[in-house]
Write a structure and sequence with these properties.
mainly alpha, two-stranded antiparallel sheet, two-stranded antiparallel ribbon, extended
């Protein structure tokens, strides 16, 4: 039995799964311990926190876990915040690894790839592109007011 959000669910372990952790990941649950996981967090909950934290960096893990516990009528325990933190670190590491593999596969991992394939400050004009009223805008004070 694993805690998914705040619900206990039973997950299936197939004969093809090498470890319990790999069986959990295959079913969308990131374990908080690689050897004998008792608690896991779903990727949906981790993605929700990731998006919320990007939108509001002041949102703490403890506040998020307390909110989840309140929503599901479960009692908050401090160890849940630590377990969520472990699963969230794993989630971020997986995201970075996937992004790196994707960049390598698409051959976008060269240090100068962005310079070669991007439009630095929109000074590159395409063929048959319509002329703009203002070709370039300048900011001299940190972009607080345009001059």
């Amino acid at each position: 039995m694993l805690l998914s959000g705040t619900e206990k669910v039973t997950l299936k372990i197939l004969s093809t799964d090498r470890t319990i952790a790999s069986a959990l990941v295959r079913q969308g649950v990131l374990p908080c311990s690689p050897i004998s996981p008792a608690v896991g967090m779903t990727t949906e909950v981790l993605e929700l926190y990731h998006v919320m934290h990007l939108r509001s960096p002041h949102l703490s893990i403890q506040a998020f876990i307390k909110s989840l516990c309140d929503l599901h009528g479960a009692e908050f325990h401090r160890h849940l915040s630590r377990q969520f933190s472990i699963a969230f670190d794993l989630y971020l590491q997986i995201r970075r690894s996937v992004a790196t593999l994707l960049a390598e596969t698409l051959q976008r991992d060269a240090p100068d790839w962005c310079l070669k394939h991007a439009c630095p400050t929109c000074t590159y004009n395409l063929q048959d592109e319509e002329d703009l009223t203002f070709n370039l805008l300048y900011a001299m004070d940190g972009n607080d007011s345009l001059k």
